[in-house]
Specification:
heterotrimer, A alpha/beta (300), B mainly alpha (311), C mainly alpha (289), A: 300 residues, alpha/beta, Rossmann fold, 8-stranded mixed sheet, 10 strands, 35% helix, C: 289 residues, mainly alpha, MetI-like fold, 11 helices
């Protein structure tokens, strides 16, 4: 059973790529694969992950450990369970900087203070000695962001960082990310199922369905002129205040179980434009025009 | 109350022939009072430090207990040390090297520990190692010759400690030699329990999100496992340590008799044989108090290990 | 109609998966075999035992031989036969003890979790008291006062076991009670009994089954310990622990009297433990080890 089968995307320097998909589309697995954090019994069976010119799939464990947290950093969805409950947040962030950047304890602490201030935590000196459960969800996520940027990575992977937070905190965190991006200049892979966030934050977007990328374009192009039926369906289902009186549009059917994938184009059972060819052959990702990539038989 | 009349048990069949004497003896022993009165009397005596009279040793129960208590304490502490120093590492390593040869071995070994009846195991060990192979003494706490020639000075009542403190090397070696087999037999079940729970707790922790985070930040595996995960597992492991003490206390009732270890367990077993009521109550009391006390210590340990708990 | 077929299919799928897991774990399979074997031996005891359980003074303390594969005891009885008869005793004790513990513990746990408040507090205090005394000690005390016999022993062990069941059920009840689908059921004015039986109990079922399996094994273990101490079965009942106690006197020369009953206890409890481990792996994937 392949959770992800045929995903190709690129992120340029200082670029923010949004990866959209419903739950079960394989977005998180993709992110974990980039970091080579896939655990038994899962494995990466093929492909390449090019980072700064090198294929990191070929590298050994020691190399990966050097990269993780240092050049590529990942932030997870649930900050509450992602932080270790029996260590203070100060200990957790200084462990990272001391390991990767070989800082002394004193330097690591003052660096941690600076980082925590950057992410907007108050009363930082006291916070260093606090445990994760003493912080609110929003604060915990800020801590995760601080840990993520602590070593100045070139790529930040954010796996639905705001999904478990309420809306007001969400917008604060987004603002924080935007600010940090300007300051530090990292590339970001932002994984989410929230189209609104993507519109606000990302330069380009890739849409995933059932383990495959179906469309990828700059954000304005995707929202202005979506080509793939799935993307169109997603955008159409967004409530729009001018369509207040109509029923909410949905895409009929449900996401396929990865054990039992439809033949041919994976979206064909739910696609309003499906034809004979869609049932039998999988569409390839083709370059539509300069920036726009698409995988669909019906859209040329 | 007691199926066999303690009066008959004590005074023998002769008393049974004369009902009048029987009634008089019963009255003297206070056995003709209703149960609740006897209970109240017992509690009153308790406060005065009187735990009753042991029929089969002809001594106050309190005196018996103070003599036998330290022997059981020594055995239990030794077994506890063995269980912890073997059980915890075995469980943790078993979790880290899951599904490899060591893991399978530890799992089977622990399963044996919790399935085997302690008293039977003790008998088998005695048969094999004492009788057939002659490696260990059959029973007792110290060799009788040594006890006579270089008696142990009574400081704490724990022979091993006392002989160590008074530099009585002959006695020390003999005591250790005598302690090894009973402590091992007693600890097997506890080792099984501890290693199973350590393994289970460690596996649980290793699957948690925060371990994934630590790995995602490139921290070396040995720190992720031996510093982070270990501390998280400690919570469950401390629980188990508390439970183990109770198990060992119970186990002493089943092991001491076989190794003629003069502790509370043997005392209780003899009392059962003689239908001697008071000592059993006395032993139960002491055991419960120890158990409760130990659990209190465990609770305190919790606060040290888990920062989420506050008192 | 369609949903019924789907449900049957789902159940078949679950059974198939269970069988697959069992195959992957030969130890659990072994446990199941042992347990079933024990039940078989227990029910067919009179047919399997080669000699009746009566004294034959002329063949006292004979070593294991072709006629008596485990030898004879101090009364001339065939030890193998006694062990077979003993399986009846052990099985009965194990099953009844657990049934009592469940029938006391589960309702109390349900009540405690469901009603909450003062009732919950009270029941929890009671379980605390029982849990604060080591079980063997508690059983010993009960039997020392009430007199050793098999029924008393069963009651005593059951008394030490019910708190665990109550706690288990209470925990599950509390967890499920808070879930939103219970509120949904209430919104449809489902009656309390319906909620209990259709929602809460089925969710408690898996841990209860696992706990029960381990408990039967432990009950047999404690019963034999009490028998050994003279607080359980009385002679001449062929109870395994009792057999070890009497056989111990004849150690080390006539070693077979105490050895074989112990092996029987060991294998039996091992079987239940293995089976319990296997069941836990099947029924609760989250705790799969």
């Amino acid at each position: 059973m392949k959770a992800v089968d045929g995903v190709t995307f690129q992120i340029g320097k200082r670029e923010t790529l949004g990866l959209i998909g419903e739950t079960g589309s394989g977005k998180s697995v993709t992110a974990l694969s980039v970091m080579r954090l896939i655990k038994d019994p899962g494995r990466i069976v093929g492909g390449k992950v090019m980072f700064e010119g090198e294929n990191i799939l070929d590298k050994d464990d020691a190399f990966m450990r050097g990269i993780r947290g240092r050049r590529i950093a990942m932030m997870f969805q649930e900050p509450t369970t992602s932080l270790n409950p029996v260590f203070t947040i100060g200990q957790q962030i200084t462990d990272i900087t001391r390991w990767h950047l070989k800082m002394t304890l004193k330097n690591a602490i003052s660096d941690a203070i600076k980082k925590f201030e950057t992410v907007g935590l108050s009363d930082v000196k006291r916070r260093l000695k606090q445990y994760p459960h003493e912080l609110s969800g929003g604060m915990q996520q800020r801590v995760m962001i601080a840990m993520g940027i602590s070593c100045g990575p070139s790529l930040l992977i954010a796996d639905e960082p705001t999904t478990s937070l309420d809306v007001t905190i969400q917008s604060q965190i987004l603002g924080l990310i935007r600010e940090l991006r300007k300051r530090i200049g990292t590339s970001i892979l932002y994984i989410t199922h929230n189209l609104g966030v993507v519109a606000e934050l990302c330069d380009r977007v890739a849409v995933m369905y059932a383990g495959k990328i179906v469309e990828s374009a700059p954000v304005m192009d995707l929202f202005g002129d979506p080509r793939h039926p799935y993307t169109q369906g997603l955008l159409a289902s967004l409530p729009h205040y001018s369509t207040r009186t109509e029923r909410l549009r949905t895409i009929g059917g449900s996401v396929p179980d990865m054990i039992d994938i439809p033949s041919g184009c994976r979206f064909h059972p739910r696609c309003p434009r499906a034809k004979e060819i869609c049932i039998h052959s999988e569409p390839e990702l083709l370059q539509l025009d300069e920036q726009h990539i698409l995988a669909c038989h019906q859209c040329k | 109350m007691i199926p066999t009349d303690p009066v008959l048990a004590y005074f023998g069949e002769q008393a049974a022939t004369d009902p009048a004497t029987l009634a008089k003896l019963r009255h003297e022993l206070g056995l003709d009072q209703p149960l609740y009165l006897r209970y109240i009397v017992y509690l009153q005596n308790l406060f005065r430090g009187n735990l009753g009279w042991s029929i089969h040793t002809s001594r106050p129960v309190l005196q018996d207990l103070s003599q036998y208590f330290t022997a059981t304490l020594e055995l239990t502490l030794a077994a506890m040390a063995i269980s912890l120093f073997l059980g915890v590492p075995l469980g943790i390593v078993s979790a880290i090297k899951k599904d490899r040869a060591l893991d399978h071995f530890v799992r089977i070994f622990s399963l044996g520990g919790i399935s085997a009846p302690i008293f039977w195991l003790a008998i088998m060990l005695q048969l094999l190692l004492c009788v057939r192979l002659g490696l260990f003494p059959l029973g007792g706490r110290v060799d009788t010759m040594i006890a006579l020639t270089s008696p142990i000075k009574h400081i704490t009542g724990l022979f091993i400690l006392d002989s160590l403190l008074s530099a009585n090397w002959a006695a020390f070696i003999s005591c250790v030699h005598h302690l090894m087999l009973p402590a091992t037999a007693l600890s097997y079940r506890a080792i099984g329990l501890i290693s199973r729970i350590s393994r289970s707790s460690m596996l649980d922790v290793l699957g948690q999100d925060y371990v994934r985070t630590a790995r995602a930040y490139g921290l070396p595996e040995r720190i992720v496992v031996y510093v982070y995960s270990l501390k998280n597992s400690m919570i469950s492991i401390v629980t188990v340590v508390g439970l183990t003490f109770g198990q060992l206390l119970q186990g002493s009732f089943l092991t001491e008799a076989i190794f003629s270890w003069p502790g509370m367990g043997l005392y209780a077993v003899k009392s059962i044989e003689f239908n001697d009521y008071m000592p059993i109550l006395g032993v139960a009391l002491v055991a419960t108090v120890c158990y409760a006390g130990f659990n209190l210590i465990v609770d305190v340990l919790y606060t040290l290990v888990d920062p989420r708990i506050k008192y | 109609m369609n949903s019924k077929i789907v449900r049957i299919q789902q159940k078949m799928a679950v059974l198939g998966y269970a069988a697959h897991l069992l195959r992957r774990s030969p130890l659990s399979l072994l446990g199941m075999v042992i347990v079933l074997g024990l039940v078989l031996i227990g029910t067919l005891a009179p047919l399997i035992a080669p000699y009746p359980d009566v004294p034959y003074p002329s063949i006292r303390l004979n070593p294991p031989s072709q006629n008596h594969i485990f030898g004879t005891d101090e009364m001339g009885r065939d030890i193998f036969g006694r062990i077979v008869y003993g399986s009846q005793v052990s099985l009965t004790v194990g099953i009844i003890v657990v049934l009592i513990a469940m029938s006391v513990g589960i309702p109390l746990g349900l009540t405690s979790g469901f009603l909450g408040g003062k009732v919950d507090g009270f029941i929890m205090r009671v379980t605390d008291i029982f849990l604060s005394i080591p079980p063997l000690l508690l059983a010993m005390l009960i039997l020392a006062t009430s007199g050793p016999s098999i029924p008393n022993m069963m009651a005593a062990i059951a008394i030490t076991m019910w708190p665990a069941h109550a706690r288990l059920v209470r925990g599950n009840t509390l967890a499920i009670k808070e879930q939103s689908y219970i509120e949904a059921a209430r919104a449809f004015s489902a009656s309390t009994t319906r909620i209990i039986f259709r929602h809460i109990l089925p969710n408690c079922l898996s841990p209860i089954i696992v706990q029960t399996t381990f408990d039967v094994g432990n009950a047999i273990l404690w019963a034999s310990a009490l028998g050994f101490l003279g607080l359980g079965a009385r002679p001449p009942t062929p109870e395994w622990g009792l057999m070890i106690a009497t056989g111990r006197i004849y150690m080390p020369i006539w070693w077979w009297c105490a050895t074989f009953p112990g092996i029987a206890i060991f294998l039996t409890v091992l079987g239940f433990n293995l089976f319990g481990d296997g069941l836990r792996d099947i029924l609760d994937p989250r705790t799969r080890r």
